[in-house]
Specification:
The protein is built from 18 helices and no strands. It is mainly α and 503 residues long. The protein folds into two domains: 398 residues, MFS general substrate transporter like domains (Growth Hormone, Chain: A), CATH 1.20.1250.20; 54 residues, no CATH class.
Amino acid sequence: MSADEQKYQVVSLPDEKSIDEAGKIKLTYRPQYFQSNFQEIMFVLTLILSQIANQGASTQTLTLFKTLSQDLNASQTSESWLMTSFSLSSGSLILITGHLGDIYGWKRLVILGYVIAIMGALVCGFSHYSHSVNQFIVSRAVLQGLGISCILPNLVGLLGHIYVQGSTRKFIIISMLGSGAPTGAFFGCFFPSWITNNNPIQNWPWVFYSYAIFCFVTLILCVKFIPDGISGNNKKPDWMGMCLGVFGLAGFNFAWNQAGIDGWEKGYNIGILLSSIISLILFYFAEKKNSNPILDPKVIKNFKTIILLINVLLGWGSFGIGLFYIYQIYLNVSLDSPITAGVKFMPFWICGIIACALVPKLITKITPIGLTLLSSLAFLISSIMISVTPSDLLYWKLQLFSICILSFGMDFSFPSSQIVLSDLLPNGNAGSLVSTMTNYGMSLFLGIAVVIQREVALKHPKNFLLDNFRAGQYLGIGVAFLACLFSVILLFDFRKEKYVKDR
């Protein structure tokens, strides 16, 4: 065995001193990649900060809709692109960047991702001087979205490699990683509103300059505290699969989002939609024949994996719809200021941290599959509450509770799906799959909701604005209901398997 091969061997399993009487790994066991507890703590901190960067980028335009539309000459119908352009790109590329991380090394892709994300944030800010909405949207998608897509799946890949499968320590770290999601979502809404409170038009670029500074600091931490000695598999990249997969996912998503602006009357939307479907079919057959596929063949063959991924896609699709229309109602119906709209989202952060703290305990009580069902129910209940809230009802009477419940849906879904997939695919790219479903679902279903909203507005031009918003919100209810159905199917399937084993 060469020196390089020895350097990149998987870390050995814990010794006998690290195993308790029940045969389980002790919580105190520290992986051998870390020389001290401080190094491990800082590594976990980089995981949390990276999750904050991901969710913060998703929500940082929500309170800026009016400001960006005014300064960049964007129409109200194109406002959804200000949010979905990031999720479309990151959701479509995460599988690809995870595949490249498997080959060239996870740490290298994380560092590259932060460099690209910093560039993307800076170019977004520079759009203020060109007053070009196209420059802003493209830089959000091509640079910022691409950068973040390199970061999170590869960090999750490192987490899965370093920590032993099924260990309590791994469950806790995944829960801590999940805590970055509500934190990023809240500060992505609040921080921009605070920066732009006094002079929105002049100050909004600093939302993205400060994001670039945040990414730069996190990049330094990643360089210093991510363990070295974890390399790729030195296999050849699946270039054909990458091209087909990216075009299929991005094209399908783009067609739905653009149809919300132009409608299906534009021939190119239909052409892109059909060609993307063909590309995804070709991707499926290309992956079956490839020796180093982007998607582990177990994903396509495993019924539980498919059901779980659909559940995550639908649940987070409902989440994206709910989040978008909450801020549409705040800014355009309730006429809240951006800072007021940002503060209204604070309970989401607080309840999200509580939810993440409960995850390790709940997993041992109701299993990760049970937690998945709870997350789907939270998405459904929150969507119903948001869509029936009258515009003149006090925030404290219903909106507060709907936002709190929404946070439990988000923060139960991410860790539970990560844990289940890591068990079903011990050698697969579970982190990439979950991140793909979350980001892609938020963008795709929001695009469909905006199409529905547009068609309702055209057929009923005398509708109040809130009525048009409701049309899009109802899709969020339907999508969340389907997520609940898939959760129940998954729950029964796992229980049936357990019963057969017990027999």
